[in-house]
Write a structure and sequence with these properties.
Distance between the termini: 25 Å
CATH topology: Hypothetical Protein Ychn, Chain: A
Strand order of the largest sheet: 4-3-2-1-5
Order of helices and strands: EHEHEHEHE
Number of helices: 4
Number of strands: 5
Length: 121
């Protein structure tokens, strides 16, 4: 199969357009059959909490919940930075399906020796 894709996202709902673009890229990779991981850091970790990732970035844009649904349906996964998540006092029991508290070492293990195409937002 095609090589893996990793999308790194640092921004949360303070910039919905950036979130939407990162999710569009991740959805495109996952729906194309690439194993896809989105690594959430900084404010983006909040997107992995149930009920937070809501809204639409712009007129005519797909909604953030719609993109999350498509990403999950295509097998995409989220790794949520444990340092960022814990520093915000968030509850791991509230994670959305497909999201795991995982740091950089597990991310590199997931990438493996064959590498991955990466995008950062």
């Amino acid at each position: 199969m095609a090589n893996k894709a990793v999308v790194s996202l640092t921004t949360g709902l303070e910039d919905t357009e950036k979130v939407m673009i990162a999710l569009l890229v991740a959805v495109g990779a996952a729906e194309s059959g690439r194993p896809t991981l989105t690594f959430l850091t900084k404010e983006a970790v909040r997107l992995a909490v149930t009920g937070v990732a809501t809204g639409t970035a712009c007129e005519g844009c797909p909604s953030i919940p719609e993109l999350l649904k498509r990403y999950a349906a295509a097998g995409g996964i989220f790794y949520v930075c444990p340092i960022c998540f814990n520093s915000k006092g968030l509850d791991p029991d509230t994670l959305i399906p497909g999201a795991e508290i995982q740091g950089t070492v597990p991310m590199w293990a997931w990438i493996g020796d064959d590498g991955a195409t990466t995008f950062s937002y």
